[in-house]
Amino acid sequence: MASTRDPESAEGRVDHRFSGIGDPERWVLPAVLAEQAARQGDATWIETVEGDRWTFAQAWLEARQVATWLTGLEVRPGERVAVMMGNHIDFVRAWMGLGLLGATAVLLNTELRGAFLAHQLRNCGARHVIVDGSLLAQIEDVVAVAPKLAYAVVAGAVPRATSQLARLDWEGWRAATPHDGTLPSAHDISCVMYTSGTSGPAKGVLMPHAHCALYGIGTCAAVELSSRDRYYITLPLFHANGLLMQLGATLLAGIPAILRSKFSASRWIDEVRRHRATVTNLLGSTAAFVVAQPERGDDADHHLRAVCVGPNLPAHEKVLRTRFGIAAVVSGFGMTEVNIPVWGRTDRSCPGAAGWVRSEYFDVVIADPETDREVARGQLGEILVRPKIPSGFMAGYLGMPERTVEAWRNLWFHTGDAATMDEDGLLTFVDRIKDCIRRRGENISASEVEAQVSSCDGVADVAAYAVPSDIPGAEDELMLAVVPLAGHPLAPAAVLAHADRLLPRFARPEYVRLLESLPRTATGKVQRAVLRQAGTAGAWRRTDLQPPSVPGEQS
User: Fold this and answer.
1) Among 102-111, 444-453, 522-531, whose mean pLDDT is lowest?
2) What DSSP assignment string belongs to 201-265?
């Protein structure tokens, strides 16, 4: 069995939890960093798998320098600044520096490109983007359709020459004096994260500081973080799970975070062991990839005591508990908009279920999606959520008031997700009511994919929809049903190649099915349920050398 303790003794060690965890008016992560720097400045906050080490005092000083430097670039409190960076300490410097300044960090997925990226840059209206040099070309490619963007603050080397934006060297912050201005309030907007819906472009979620801090507060309670813990973080920092549920939790608990640039299933257990990690998170397909690794005799030789998994498939929990010897497998339910209103418990296994409502912070009901009336316990309905803490929830969708109103019908936020709740209050997520595709931990808007694929030469009509992955627990794969133009030969490989040029990697289709027409309702709406019934049989997969010959379908 795995040890449940860090090899260092916890005896005599001080509890470094943030003193304001019980006061929502103090839920501002830059203020938490200030307190940790004062209390344990020399202690390590972040160490990377490459060997970099960053103390709380260094983080506080350098974030203040970044804030001053950004002020010199005429970034003002309340202004939105795009950030497109990978998992490294410079990301955290930028995020914290913007937070100290009272500016809003617009956190962009590093795989975005083309129309997806252009929409988010236009929607946020940022003048500045802080970007890794390796990603600058993706920004430059869409500058013409994001007219407000004027400056690229570039970190690291640039692979190819570009000239579309005024370029500033990120390293300029090092010469700045520390910022000493007023910290933002818990109700100010900290960041914007984009989430895809069922139709239309991605929506920018306005996230107050209190909302951001509450993610980590939930983690601290759910997995009972203590001073002896070390959190291994492999999920991207541009998402709430990696940045707020994990890194934010380490800041609130005053414990070390071990940061990896990108998840690796083959190196997962070795790095957990090497860095003496006690807690980590797995999301969607990452859990499937871990349990699919070849079994080894030393799989349980580590100090990992808890893992947060979503969703928590029974087969995955069994492997994590038995083969890997992890004592606590904890799940939950949440969204970028609503925080994590449902959490599991370390002392109670509930495989397949999400957990119980955090009733001190949220109201949650399961309701009829047509009437919004609460259904009886055990019956299937839509998850509706509302906050009990001011600013502990999203403040709306950026520039999309109609979407905000639509989501907030009858004073409840409608998640679009189906679930049941038993007599004990245990919530079990069942499926998505919304027609949203979930792949590799990302929500994908079918309409955005369709808009890009429809521009492929020879495509007359297209529908994007989810089909089950052949990896157990690995969420969905993306299928395209494509109708070729009459008399126009169309190869599925050409459709995939076109999609790959325009779509982020997580949104690239796995399957293509060529049809004579799409099934539609009397009002012209594509019947995706009919398409899904066919499964993947007879479809062309990107790993196939030749498209299959299927009667009734064009090839």
Assistant:
1) 522-531
2) S-EEEEEEHHHHHHHHHHHHHHTT--TT--EEE-S-TTSHIIIIIIIHHHHHHT--EEE-SS--T
Lowest mean pLDDT among 16-30, 67-81, 383-397, 534-548: 534-548
Q: Does domain 24-43+50-206 have CATH number 3.40.50.980?
A: yes
**Exposure string over 206-243, b if 16+ CB within 10 A, otherwise e:** bbbbbbbbbbbbbbbebbbbbbbbbbbbbbbbbbbbbb
| Nearest alpha carbon to residue 202 among 436, 508, 509 | 436
Distance CA 454, CA 351 (A): 41
End-to-end CA distance of the chain: 54
- pTM of the entire structure? 0.84
Phi-psi map region of 171: left, alpha, beta (phi>0 left; psi -120 to 50 alpha): alpha
| 190-199, 343-352, 500-509, 542-551 — most confident range | 343-352
Query: What is the arithmetic mean of pLDDT over 202-230?
Result: 97
Q: Helices 446-453 and 114-124, interaxial angle, to 10°?
A: 120
CA angle 73, 79, 81 (to 5 degrees): 70
Domain boundaries, the chain: 24-43+50-206, 331-432, 437-541
- Considering the domain 331-432, what is its CATH architecture? Roll (2.30)
Amino acid, single-letter form, for residue 503:
L
φ, ψ for residue 542, nearest 5 deg: -60, -20
> Are 10 and 226 contacting, i.e. CB atoms less than 8 angstroms apart?
yes
Q: What would the two tokens of residue 221 be?
A: 């309670």
Q: Answer yes or no: CATH 3.30.300.30 is held by domain 437-541.
A: yes
At 506 the three-state DSSP class reads helix
Distant-in-sequence, close-in-space partners of 16: CB < 8 Å, separation ≥ 6: 36, 39, 40, 43, 227, 253, 254, 255
pLDDT band at 66; cut points 50, 70, 90: very high
Residues counted in the chain: 555
Given a contact cutoff of 8 angstroms between Cβ atoms, the answer to whether 364 and 383 are in contact is yes
Structure tokens at 60: 């506080």
